[in-house]
Amino acid sequence: MKLLEDRIRKDGVVLGADVLKVDNFLNHQVDPDLMLAVGKEFYNQFKDSKITKILTVESSGIAPALATAMSFHVPLVFARKHKSLTLKDDMFTATVYSFTKQTSNTIAIAKKFLSADDKVLIIDDFLANGQAVQGLTDIIKQAGAETVGAGIVIEKTFQKGRKMFDDQGVRVVSLARIAAFEDGQVVFADEQDA
Ligand code: 5GP
Questions:
Q1: Which residue of 35, 43, 56, 142 could cross-link 61, Cys pair, CB 3.0 to 4.6 Å?
Q2: By residue range, what is the domain housing residue 67?
Q3: Which top class of enzyme applies to this chain (predicted)?
């Protein structure tokens, strides 16, 4: 998605070897027009899949997930993160290792918001090693629901997530695909292929 790649070039800041900071438009300040465009694009990609629910993890996934839910006119449910959780019967839970924070969290979704007849689209801001999306697919499985696919705003193709979901047969659509960071600059996968 050119609009997104242009914005990443303009406002993204490369931190170290493998982290991109995008707090100008996605992770802290949020650009609503860009989010609307992101939501519409995910709608175009998944509109034939009879999606009934959008799932994400708080907090960075919520902005693009809400924009997507608005295009589909279906509910958004965001998993809540807990450092430690007394397991409750009314919650589906999964353990997720955070790539950026290097800690494990339990993510939880109330059982009343996910059921066996749901067809679910997962939305997240980044795909790195795939832990967040994997946690959500685990929860969807616990509910007996179907994971239709995952819509990712920014994928880093050099980390493990993409291969993991390709191997599992989970459809992943990413709007910007970063192949590498070189000298503090972003190299997109489509530039590398060209
Ligand atoms: P994964 O679970 O795929 O390893 O990592 C995805 C999660 O980690 C995302 O939800 C996002 O919050 C965070 N994350 C991973 N890589 C980056 C990055 O380069 N920049 C930012 N801002 N967040 C990231």
A1: 56
A2: 2-83+90-193
A3: transferase
Sign of the Cα pseudo-torsion (14, 128, 172, 52, in order): negative
Q: Which two tokens stand for residue 167?
A: 């191997």
pLDDT digits (tens, 9 = 90+) for 53-85: 999 999 999 999 999 999 999 999 999 998 665
Q: Which is the closest atom of ligand 1 to the Cα of 97? A: 2
Atom of ligand 1 at shortest range from CA of 130: 3
Q: Is the shortest distance between the CB of 19 and ligand 1 below 6 Å?
A: yes
Q: Does the annotation flag 156 for ligand binding?
A: yes
Compute the Cα dihedral for 156, 173, 70, 95 and give only its sign.
negative
The enclosing domain of 133 has a CATH number of 3.40.50.2020
- Distance (angstroms) between ligand 1 centre and the Cα of 187 equals 17
Inter-residue contact 65 to 56 (CB < 8 Å): yes
The whole-model pTM stands at: 0.97
Query: Is residue 134 within 6 Å of ligand 1 at its C-beta?
Result: no
Report the pLDDT value the prediction gives residue 84, as an integer from 0 to 100: 61
Bridge partners of residue 97, in order along the sequence: 104
Number of domains in the chain: 1
What's the one-letter identity of residue 85? L
